[in-house]
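Priority: medium. Attachment 1 of 2:
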């Protein structure tokens, strides 16, 4: 990341706004807020999140744990809300970024906005700026093998959002972004495949590191030294500086994102969609299945475990996700809880599933990330279903606001969904962020 590049990106981030952006951008910001808050409220209900919150030491502060009655310090809110947002693998993502820009930016932006008393319009502008910065850096970044996309490039977008909230000049914003480029995690993808819970903290770590980067710039200690050229460009991979600013202000990355309907890694979604399509069209029973072959792109092939031991490992297992889809007809969070991993019907199908690379499918990346599922039945019949991309992607059956509401209603209930909408409407009306978040109230007490 050349110094001129980071300054150009910072100049854009300091001036872009939701109100002046095209209507599709405004619609995506609204959908992202509703989806993210609702998904995080659902994530708070997991045993894993509750155990972490119980032991997390935090001083009282101005930043909300979403949907709860207590407010904590900004770093604690950033971490815990980010964990809640990603723990069910239902958070918004972007295939061109190969990761989750919104989930890196939103928790820390909301926490800082409450701390400084910002209004809803300022928050939305900061979120948009942070998303665009994060997604653009990620799009131009090509990681070394085995790097997970949480906790590294997203810190730059998070710093852009927090700096924007604090009214930074272009120079200060660039300094904060440069500092964030020196505060990155070398996060191993193997942790997700193995189901190691630490992976669920990396989004929060990026947010906390963004706070550090902003404080460096705020104190007058910031510099612009092209730090990302060393971290992203050599240590963690390679980066194309020209790609970062290509079509800046004309191509909006947020409009190319996806919203999830399955509680699993996005790489598992095309196999799940194909399995569901085959199940619906052929009308066979799960017990009739003798073997399953999933053919897909190179990024998805490592997700091949047939014996996941944790929720996270199951959400990163194509055999488990396909087995759940064929057995239950949907991939809802309860099918990934630890007790459900030993469901005999699911285990049987999991053990009969193989994942293979298909060169033709792989060649369509990054625009398409498809899959083909071949199912062999006990009758000798073979059923094949293929999908070009995941349902919910901006370019393939994107989820409408109604569909997102349906998803969230099934996760958190009608009462808490209504509270999420009230909070987002308050932000759109430019209420103080702290006031808007009070609409969520203690949503665990809402009578469904």
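Attachment 2 of 2:
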């Amino acid at each position: 990341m050349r110094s001129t590049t980071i300054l150009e990106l910072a100049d854009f981030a300091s001036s872009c706004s939701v109100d002046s952006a095209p209507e599709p951008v405004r619609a995506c910001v609204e959908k992202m807020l509703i989806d993210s808050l609702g998904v995080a409220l659902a994530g708070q209900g997991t045993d894993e999140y509750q155990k972490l919150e119980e032991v997390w030491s935090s001083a009282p502060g101005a930043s909300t744990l979403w949907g709860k009655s207590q407010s904590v310090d900004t770093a604690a809110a950033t971490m815990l809300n980010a964990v809640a947002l990603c723990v069910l693998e239902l958070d918004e993502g972007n295939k061109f970024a190969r990761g989750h820009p919104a989930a890196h930016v939103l928790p820390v932006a909301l926490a800082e906005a409450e701390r400084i008393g910002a209004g809803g319009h300022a928050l939305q502008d900061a979120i948009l700026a942070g998303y665009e910065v994060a997604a653009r850096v990620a799009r131009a970044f090509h990681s070394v093998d085995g790097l997970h996309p949480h906790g590294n490039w997203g810190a730059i977008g998070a710093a852009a959002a927090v700096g924007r909230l604090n009214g930074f000049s272009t120079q200060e914003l660039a300094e904060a972004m440069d500092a964030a480029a020196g505060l990155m995690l070398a996060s191993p993808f193997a942790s997700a495949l193995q189901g190691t819970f630490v992976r669920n903290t990396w989004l929060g770590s990026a947010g906390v590191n963004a706070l550090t980067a902003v404080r460096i710039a705020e104190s007058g200690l910031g510099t612009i030294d092209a730090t990302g050229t060393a971290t992203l460009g050599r240590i963690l991979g390679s980066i194309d500086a020209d790609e970062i600013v290509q079509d800046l202000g004309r191509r909006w990355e947020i409009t190319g994102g996806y919203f999830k309907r399955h509680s699993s890694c996005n790489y598992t979604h095309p196999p799940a969609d194909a399995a569901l399509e085959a199940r619906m069209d052929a009308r066979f029973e799960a017990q009739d299945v003798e073997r399953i072959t999933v053919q897909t792109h190179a990024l998805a092939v490592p997700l091949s475990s047939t014996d996941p031991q944790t929720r996270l490992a199951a959400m990163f297992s194509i055999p488990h996700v396909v087995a759940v889809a064929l057995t239950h007809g949907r991939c809802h969070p309860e099918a990934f809880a630890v007790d459900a991993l030993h469901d005999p019907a699911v285990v049987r199908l999991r053990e009969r599933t193989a994942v293979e690379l298909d060169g033709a499918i792989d060649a369509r990346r990054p625009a398409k990330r498809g899959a083909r599922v071949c199912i062999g039945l006990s009758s000798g019949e073979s059923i094949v279903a293929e999908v070009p991309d995941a349902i919910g992607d901006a370019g393939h059956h994107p989820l409408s606001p109604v569909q997102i509401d349906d998803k969230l209603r099934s996760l958190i209930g009608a009462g808490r969904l209504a509270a999420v909408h009230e909070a987002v409407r308050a932000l759109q009306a430019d209420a103080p962020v702290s006031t808007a978040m009070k609409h969520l109230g203690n949503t665990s007490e809402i009578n469904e």
